[in-house]
Amino acid sequence: MTRMKNALRSLMKNILRPVKKNNKSVLEKFAKQEKILPQTLGRQRTAHAGSKSTEKKSAAFVRMSPAQVMHNRFVQLQKAAQRGQAQRSSRPGNVLSGTSNGSMARAVAPSLTDKADSLGGGLKRLAHAPLKTASPAQSKPNVLSGGGRKTIQTVTKGSKRIAYTPTATMMQRPVIPTEYGSKVPTNIRQRYLNLFIDEYAKVTGNEEDSHKKGLEEEKIVYDRSSTKNVYLNVAVNALKRLRDQVQDQSSPVVKQSTLARPMQKLSHEAMLAGKQGMKTSYTLNRTGKVTVPDRYRGAELYQKLKAFVLTQKQLEENGFPMPCPDKHCCAVSARDERSKILTTDRTERTCCRCGARFVVSLKGKYAVKEECVYHWGKPWKKKVCRTWITSYSCCSGESNSEGCCVGELHVSDNKNMSGFVKTLPRTPPYDGNYGVFALDCEMAHTTDGIELIRVTVVDEDSQCVYESLVKPDREVIDYNTRFSGIKESDMADVTTTIRDVQAVLLSMFSAQTILLGHSLESDLLALKLIHYTVVDTSQVFPHRLGLPYKRALRNLMAEYLKKIIQDSVDGHDSMEDAVACVELMTWKLKEDAKLGL
Fold it and tell me: Does the pLDDT at position 428 exceed 50?
């Protein structure tokens, strides 16, 4: 201690030397520190005692934890239970311990009773026993909404609850069996079957009858439908009709008395018609199910098909031949903007099968004879492992693979656009029927492009009225037997030319005659015939992607008429294709008549 004091004194002397005399506050400050420091050494610091007048500050609010809140509530419940037990024990003849209510309370809430035993000095928590019990006659049943199928019995407190037992058994609803390749998905049929059953249940009130009538209604809708969209339309209309019947039965017209009803002036028609005179329309024809004929004929068929005749814009979009404004007896096709009138000056061509370039002379002779290696099938895109791969339908080869067929020479799909004729108008017939015909043609590859080798025409009854083989003007390179079905031996004695065919067709057809066909523009280009009144089945049944995509005729027959065509190994038959077009349009007219179109 003495050493520390001496050190402090020497330090103070050194510090106080340069200080001026007039700075007394600093000297007094250091002197006070010198006196206080020895006294504070070795002692514990004490807090400053505030003045007596200063009020004590309130403690800050601390939010209790959930465990603390539950503990406080439990303590309050325990105290309340003790007070209630003390009151019941004071009553004469009331034994609390050992009762069933006490055991029930302990079984229901064992944790609470254990806590009460530990905190309440061995007291047991008992369930509340009501003083008065209501008689069973006073209990009122509550009925749930839902057709009166379920009831809830209000049970008095303390009595035993009884489970509900249904009085009547519920019938299981019928299920539509799953069919492979069905035209309508099974889940859609099942949904509308349930809706039909619900509506019939409101009308009949009998579950068995509603199931039977619902099945009959769904069967009628399914038989009338050819596709999913048609099924949905017919089912919605049938459901709307059933709901209208239910609404008419549920809200009958309230009759007013004749005294309260004001006097109204009735017309002569209302007096004759009676009560339904203002609501009902009368006709001489008997109402009921619409009768659809098996097939339309004559003038009726002609009038029905006029709705499907292509417009001028559709003719141009599909590439039908149009008269050339610059040259006589020539035509142009608006499908390809590059199409022009072909002349013999063109010597360089592109093969339509393999895409190779080849050269011909002015007379169409090949300068160099080369083999043509190609795929006769069409390229199709399919998704494999999340990537699109293009493969040919003939050999499943990839797009860059070598061809699977070998031809003697390259061929082109050029068309000679000269030598065209146009159908002429005729005098209107007495019944307005200008005639309905279907035609199909087969073509071959020649040195001048594609030329006609066969034509077939059928009438509205699918009877052949004209069929002939045609000798091409130029030398034939490939008869395209795989598709045309015509071999070189079949054309040995043929002398009919395309001019002879045009003369026959112009005598059969007029400008108002309806011609049926599939992709009819290629047939008219091969026939070199200009005709505007056409019905093309590729447009009546269009592809979902639109032009230039078109659905194949065999696919349309398989989907709508469930028939298989063009399955012969000898090639297509023009007669079969023409009859298929007539049958497709007949089916289309019948389906539209069923829908009231």
Answer: yes
Half-sphere exposure of 482 (CA within 13 A, CB side): 8
Q: Under the phi-then-psi rule, with left for phi > 0, alpha for psi from -120 to 50, and beta for the rest, what region is 65? A: beta
Helix axes 207-224, 228-250, angle to 10 degrees: 140
pLDDT 10s digits, 563-585: 888 877 677 788 999 999 999 99
To 10 degrees, the CA torsion angle through 84, 85, 91, 92? 160
Q: How far is CA 150 from CA 2, 199, 208, 380, in A?
A: 103, 21, 20, 60
What is the distance in angstroms between the CA of the first residue and the CA of the last residue of the chain? Answer: 123
* 315 in Cβ contact with 329 (< 8 Å): no
Long-range contacts of 177-184 (CB under 8 A, 24+ apart): 183/225, 183/226, 183/227, 183/228, 183/231, 184/222, 184/225, 184/227, 184/228, 184/231
How confident is the model over 469-517, as pLDDT tens digits? 999 988 888 888 888 888 888 888 899 999 999 999 999 999 999 999 9
Length of the chain: 597
DSSP code string of 234-252: HHHHHHHHHHHHHHHHHSP
**Non-local CB neighbours of 213 within 8 Å, separated by 6+ positions:** 196, 200, 204
Its pTM stands at 0.52
Contact present, 179 and 186 (Cβ < 8 Å): yes
- Amino acid of residue 266: L
**DSSP collapsed to 3 states, 160-218:** CCCCCCCCCCCCCCCCCCCCCCCCCCHHHHHHHHHHHHHHHHHHHCCHHHHHHHHHHHH
* Whether 553 contacts 563, CB under 8 Å: no
